């Protein structure tokens, strides 16, 4: 087990290196720092001095890969080393506006988590409960109607749920504030609407997926064995189908758990929650490449952690799986 | 006639691709004739009521997208003494000709659906020259009415006659089709197709008829007709849904099948590539890439001498990037399925007959993993249509000059906090999008049921 | 009065949207069963025998429905019970054992939990009593170290042990009736023997009525007191086993009985020069371990086997699952790399050849696979299937069209089948097609990898006869890979018995079958159910 995790971590390194090189290529080679500077400075007729000054302030005036300096600094005193490789030790550096990205992330990941974690947990629970309920009435009119309803829910744009939720709950009925955030216990007032919207917008797809997973289990031979033992329909559902169906469900959601820190771009910006999602969105809209680059790397790290957690979770919930 | 000769056709890259796509869809269904197994599976899709009805809706949207993909530039009026013809900077399409009535009716700012007065007060002068503020009459909507009291009656009369005529036309067309062709295929639930077709026909005729004298869905901030915008946005939606997958499809197919078939180091490399790409959060990859495209466009203005070229370039780039974030899933599925298929006895038999790798892949592997490709094509369609709205909202979507549902939502977003709310622009975009996505979802369900061996 | 009475039972497939008529799959069948008696319900695939058993338990899938009939168990009409009452009958008074022990156990519960579940449903025992009962039951069905194994998950047990657990579960509440649906079909012969013996013992000990559903006439002759033969949903003959085997009345019954090969006739071995010679060949698969995935050890799938096949000769390579027999076949075809040893064909070394170097040999060595449903590309027509090998190996024929039509007739199919697709054929026809595909390139040696084990008994003999006729006509040699000893006298000149990658014994068919030298061979032969 430990050897396995070590090996997986070792495999993760070349992948992160790939991500690192790819983002570096996108941000510094395809687009030169000169171009970035011109876009940032806005004016089409900026002077070359202004560009140089902008680059120097942010350390983008160094060579990309190899400095002509003698000695060790030939490799270290470069954009690649300072801006890209440094990410491996989670040294995110400064944003193009001069703020420390690492500190921003530490501060902003908690509101993100406060929104994403309840949405995630409530969402999965609701979907599983709905799917089980539908399975109880499988191959009936109720089943068909529920599936049509789920497809309709799935076909509605996520933005619509947000508009509708804000309009009715906040604007018309004044049940919750439209947007904003307060740290600490008072946060729930601001979080409840986005959590509900996040859950509702996921019901269609989630319920349908879980229903099909449960249906697949329900058609297996061991379910027939259980019925032949005289187990009642309801007990078959809860004691045999549910535990087996939960295995693919749990292991497939584990991969996103670490990424919950990253927050949701859409929700956070609509509801004014100062998390990493809105942080990223602000950076995108302000074309702050340093922040975007950091978030890309952070996202990849969390995804790979999620992959490893997925494999570990298999061994925990499925007796058939042993890691080697 | 001579005027028609003067128009200058414009061929955008996305036009080329969408017509290539049309040709390949037709070729695909045509080759089914030779393949009874696959033909029977597809027949199951069209023999289900939901499958057929949603297909009719998709074809309707596709036709709108196709007529909107025949572009040209109108000639400008010749100045005296000028020999050569100059063409407008604005690129129009055949659809614009059909919607000419809607397009021409600009107002100055917001107006509600079917309104004959503007949504905002303006300074006006009365007969005596006194300035006062009130809601002005709209220039192009309901100008034939003398007072608002006639409005409801007029709408009802116009809608009634449009519905009556179009119902008759629809009935005649359906009957004709049934006599000529439909009755030879008794297993196909034609009634659901006819009902869907008639509904679409009646709705479009009525909307266009009413649209001649009213703004059926209102107008936006600069007074442009919302109905016109939401119809023009159909092309963007349909194209993003198809091209995003198609542009990266070759990559997914080649890499996925090679990995599963050759195994060994090829497999290692392919797995490395798709794990690396899929580890980057999709929305960030898209955002980053679109920012870079913006930088490219800004620094190379000479390459894009028309707004339409710029928008089209950005659009295709967006499709490609969207595809890049999603091809890894298909690649992974194809790899797994190829691993499975290449262990099957018929592939082993082909090896025993000394059949070359290329032939094994094309004759034995590809046809037997085809269902995965097709299922993912139809499944991804609705995902991309919905994604466009989100991306445009975030500001990394299609070019603002291109009509799209996402852009409509984005523009209207700020106005939702107005009181009373300006809801119609968002509403129209959502309805148009919902119908397409719902049809696509229902259709992809049927396709999956019919093609996926596990679903049976 | 009989324990179980089935009267005029019919089962229908409910019509789909495009079918107007329901299809009758079980047609008006009646039989009875007494305590302590074994009734064998015999039939080939699609005869409706498994549906009958599911109908008795009222466990039919939703698309099927019981359209008429009555079933009485110990005086109670089962079809009149509510679902709740029926649940008190299932598992308590009648229990069932299924064909696939692999998939019939819940993978995430321990076997102890699964047996305890049925006990808790029908009895109120304390936890300790239940546990004790579970251990006793496992002991009774012959699971070694039952105390500990009760806590194991199904995947930790072997196939035979899983079937024993299924039987323990079925017998937990001491039912009056046991329905065993092909209980040994998925198992190796030696294991099959053990399970059948166990069932027989339990039946005597507990005065159990057993409805044994099977397609295997050997199993029937070994086990059954009475026999009912089913075909196309109908019972065509019902008789005591003795009478049935000595004087079958129905023609179909006679055919089934005669499909059991005669063990007293053997083929004389043609003495010819060796065509294929294997010398000490090894196929090893690496096992990787540790952080760096170094090769720590090998799975020795084929571990030094030597054999030779002469022209016009059939060598049967016999072994149970996992013995390495199929891997050996693949190694001869060059589809598996050798870890040692050599393969020569017609005097020429053919191991270690590259893909292109092997190409000329592909024409001379061909293969037929076990599963007729996966051995043909479903997207290709018969014409494409037949011509693929001919084209790729450059077989020169004057008129390919006429050649392919002749081939089809030669294997007993119609010449106009050329434009059909594989799914339009039955299993037996597909296997004929596979034979046609192999002989199309005019090979000298055909590797037959279990070519008949997926087929019904009546078809099996036809395919074997076809292979034998073709051997006579074309002078073919066969390497006949099989687990089924009963068909060997019919087809093989010589036999090699394989276990764990090694050949234990080799000789003429007569020698090996009549005077087996190795203990394992004897065990194998004893395990084959034969006519009493």
From TrEMBL, chain A:
The keyword 4Fe-4S does not apply. It comes from the Bacteria. It is a multi-pass membrane protein. InterPro entries: BPD_transp_1_N (IPR045621), MetI-like (IPR000515), MetI-like_sf (IPR035906). Residues 109-313 form the ABC transmembrane type-1 domain. Keywords: Cell membrane, Membrane, Transmembrane, Transmembrane helix, Transport. It holds the Pfam family BPD_transp_1_N. PANTHER family: INNER MEMBRANE ABC TRANSPORTER, OLIGOPEPTIDE TRANSPORT SYSTEM PERMEASE PROTEIN APPB. Belongs to the binding-protein-dependent transport system permease family. This is ABC transporter permease.
Automatic annotation (TrEMBL), chain C:
Residues 4-257, 287-525 form the ABC transporter domain. It comes from the Bacteria. The keyword Nucleotide-binding applies. The keyword Transport applies. InterPro entries: AAA+_ATPase (IPR003593), ABC_transp_ATP-bind (IPR050319), ABC_transporter-like_ATP-bd (IPR003439), ABC_transporter-like_CS (IPR017871), Oligopep_ABC_C (IPR013563), P-loop_NTPase (IPR027417). PROSITE patterns: ABC_TRANSPORTER_1, ABC_TRANSPORTER_2. GO terms for molecular function: ATP binding. Keywords: ATP-binding, Nucleotide-binding, Transport. Gene3D superfamilies: P-loop containing nucleotide triphosphate hydrolases (3.40.50.300). Pfam families: ABC_tran, oligo_HPY. Belongs to the ABC transporter superfamily. This is ABC transporter ATP-binding protein.
């Amino acid at each position: 087990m430990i050897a396995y995790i070590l090996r997986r971590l070792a495999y993760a390194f070349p992948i992160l290196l790939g991500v690192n090189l790819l983002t570096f290529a996108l941000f510094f080679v395809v687009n030169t720092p000169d171009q970035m500077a011109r876009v940032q400075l806005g004016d089409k007729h900026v002077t070359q001095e202004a560009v140089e000054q902008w680059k120097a302030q942010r350390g983008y005036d160094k060579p990309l890969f190899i400095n002509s300096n003698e000695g060790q600094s030939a490799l270290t005193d470069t954009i690649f080393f300072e801006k890209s490789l440094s990410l491996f030790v989670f040294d995110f550096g400064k944003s193009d506006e001069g703020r420390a990205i690492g500190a921003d992330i530490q501060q902003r990941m908690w509101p993100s988590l406060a929104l994403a974690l309840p949405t995630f947990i409530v969402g999965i629970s609701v979907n599983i409960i709905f799917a089980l309920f539908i399975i109880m009435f499988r191959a009936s009119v109720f089943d068909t109607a529920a599936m049509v309803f789920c497809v309709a829910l799935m076909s509605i744009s996520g933005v619509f749920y947000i508009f509708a939720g804000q309009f009715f709950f906040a604007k018309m009925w004044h049940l919750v504030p439209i947007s904003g955030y307060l740290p600490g216990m008072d946060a729930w007032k601001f979080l409840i609407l986005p959590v509900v919207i996040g859950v509702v917008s996921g019901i269609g797809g989630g319920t349908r997926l879980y229903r099909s997973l449960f249906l697949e289990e329900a058609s297996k031979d061991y379910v027939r064995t259980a019925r032949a033992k005289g187990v009642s329909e309801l007990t078959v559902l809860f004691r045999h189908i549910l535990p087996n169906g939960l295995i693919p469900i749990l292991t497939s959601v584990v991969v996103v758990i670490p990424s919950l820190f990253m927050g949701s771009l859409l929700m956070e910006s609509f509801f004014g929650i100062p998390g990493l999602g809105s942080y990223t969105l602000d950076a995108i809209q302000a074309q702050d490449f340093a922040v975007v680059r950091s978030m890309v790397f952070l996202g990849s790290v969390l995804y790979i952690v999620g992959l490893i957690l997925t494999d570990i979770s298999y061994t925990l919930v499925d007796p058939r799986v042993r890691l080697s | 006639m001579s005027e028609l000769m003067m128009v200058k056709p414009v061929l955008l890259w996305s036009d080329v691709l969408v017509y290539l796509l049309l040709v390949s869809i037709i070729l695909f269904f045509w080759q089914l004739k030779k393949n009874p197994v696959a033909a029977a599976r597809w027949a199951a899709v069209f023999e289900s009521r939901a499958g057929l009805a949603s297909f009719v809706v998709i074809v309707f949207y596709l036709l709108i997208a196709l007529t909107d993909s025949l572009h040209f530039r109108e000639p400008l009026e010749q100045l005296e003494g000028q020999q050569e013809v100059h063409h407008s900077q604005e690129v129009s399409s055949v659809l614009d000709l059909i919607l000419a009535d809607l397009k021409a009716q600009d107002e100055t700012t917001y107006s509600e659906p079917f309104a004959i007065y503007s949504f905002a007060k303006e300074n006006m002068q009365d007969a005596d020259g006194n300035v006062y503020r009130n809601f002005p009459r709209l220039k192009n909507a309901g100008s034939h009415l003398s007072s608002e009291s006639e409005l409801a009656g007029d709408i009802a009369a116009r809608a009634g006659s449009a519905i009556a005529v179009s119902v008759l036309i629809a009935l005649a067309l359906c009957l004709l089709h049934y006599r000529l062709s439909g009755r030879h295929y008794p297993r196909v639930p034609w009634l659901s197709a006819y009902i869907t077709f008639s509904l679409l026909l009646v709705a479009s005729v009525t909307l266009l008829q009413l649209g001649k004298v009213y703004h059926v869905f209102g107008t936006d901030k600069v007074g442009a007709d919302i109905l016109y915008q939401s119809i023009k946005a159909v092309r963007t939606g349909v194209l993003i849904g198809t091209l995003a997958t198609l542009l990266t499809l070759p990559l997914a197919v080649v890499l996925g099948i090679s990995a599963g078939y050759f195994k060994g180091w090829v497999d290692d490399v392919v797995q490395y590539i798709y794990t690396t790409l899929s580890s980057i959060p999709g929305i960030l990859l898209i955002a980053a890439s679109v920012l870079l495209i913006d930088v490219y466009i800004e620094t190379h203005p000479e390459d894009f001498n028309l707004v339409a070229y710029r928008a089209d370039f950005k659009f295709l780039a967006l499709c490609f990037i969207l595809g890049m974030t999603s091809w890894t899933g298909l690649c992974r599925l194809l790899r797994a399925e190829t691993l499975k298929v290449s262990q099957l006895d018929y592939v082993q038999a082909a090896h025993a007959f000394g059949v070359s790798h290329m032939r094994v892949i094309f004759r034995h592997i590809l046809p037997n993993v085809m269902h995965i490709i097709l299922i993912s094509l139809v499944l991804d369609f609705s995902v991309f249509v919905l994604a466009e709205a989100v991306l445009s909202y975030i500001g990394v979507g299609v070019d603002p000059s291109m009509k799209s549902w996402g852009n409509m939502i984005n523009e209207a977003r700020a106005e939702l906090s107005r009181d009373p709310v300006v809801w119609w622009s968002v509403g129209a975009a959502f309805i148009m999008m919902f119908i397409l996505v719902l049809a696509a979802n229902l259709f992809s369900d049927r396709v999956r049921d019919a093609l996926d061996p596990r679903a049976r | 009065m009989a324990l179980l009475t089935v009267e005029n039972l019919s089962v229908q497939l409910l019509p789909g949207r495009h079918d107007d008529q329901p299809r009758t799959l079980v047609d008006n069948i009646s039989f009875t069963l007494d305590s302590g008696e074994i009734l064998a319900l015999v039939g080939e695939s699609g005869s409706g025998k498994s549906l009958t058993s599911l109908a008795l338990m009222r466990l039919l899938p939703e698309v099927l429905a019981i359209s008429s009939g009555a079933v009485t168990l110990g005086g109670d009409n089962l079809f009149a019970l509510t679902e709740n009452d029926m649940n008190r009958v299932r598992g308590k008074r009648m229990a069932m054992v299924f064909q696939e022990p692999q998939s019939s156990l819940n993978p995430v519960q321990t076997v102890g939990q699964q047996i305890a579940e049925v006990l808790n449903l029908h009895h109120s025992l304390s936890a300790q009593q239940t546990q004790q009962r579970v251990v006793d039951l496992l002991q009774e069905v012959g699971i070694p170290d039952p105390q500990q194994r009760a806590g194991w998950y199904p995947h930790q047990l072997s196939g035979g042990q899983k079937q024993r657990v299924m039987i323990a579960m079925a017998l937990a509440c001491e039912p009056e009736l046991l329905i065993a649906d092909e209980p040994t079909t998925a198992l190796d012969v030696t294991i099959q023997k053990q399970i059948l013996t166990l069932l027989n013992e339990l039946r005597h000990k507990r005065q159990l009525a057993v409805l044994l559903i099977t397609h295997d006439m050997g199993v029937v002759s070994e086990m059954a007191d009475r026999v009912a033969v089913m075909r196309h949903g109908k019972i065509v003959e019902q008789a005591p086993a003795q009478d049935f085997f000595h004087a079958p009345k129905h023609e179909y019954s006679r055919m089934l009985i005669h499909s059991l090969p005669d063990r007293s006739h053997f083929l004389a071995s043609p003495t010819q020069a060796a065509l294929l010679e294997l010398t000490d060949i090894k196929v090893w698969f690496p096992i990787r371990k540790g952080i760096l995935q170094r090769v720590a050890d090998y799975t020795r799938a084929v571990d030094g086997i030597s054999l030779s096949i002469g022209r016009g000769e059939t060598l049967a390579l016999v072994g149970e699952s996992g013995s390495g027999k199929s891997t050996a076949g693949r190694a001869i075809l060059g589809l598996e790399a050798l870890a040692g040893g050599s393969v020569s064909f017609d005097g020429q070394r053919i191991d270690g050849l590259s893909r292109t170097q092997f190409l000329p040999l592909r024409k001379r060595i061909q293969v037929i696979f076990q599963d007729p449903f996966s051995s043909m590309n479903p997207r290709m027509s018969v014409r494409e299937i037949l011509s693929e090998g001919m084209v790729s190996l450059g077989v020169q024929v004057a008129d390919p069209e006429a050649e392919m039509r002749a081939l089809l007739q030669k294997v007993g199919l119609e010449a106009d089948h050329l434009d059909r697709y594989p799914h339009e054929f039955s299993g037996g026809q597909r296997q004929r097609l596979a034979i046609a595909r192999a002989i199309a390139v005019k090979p000298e040696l055909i590797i037959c990898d279990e070519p008949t084990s997926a087929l019904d008994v009546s078809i099996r003999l036809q395919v074997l006869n076809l292979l034998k006729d073709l051997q006579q006509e074309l002078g073919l040699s066969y390497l006949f890979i099989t687990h089924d000893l009963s068909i060997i006298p019919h087809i093989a000149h010589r036999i090699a018995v394989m276990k764990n990658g090694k050949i234990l014994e080799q000789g003429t068919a007569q020698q090996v079958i009549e005077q087996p030298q190795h203990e394992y061979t004897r065990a194998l032969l004893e395990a084959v159910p034969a006519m009493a």
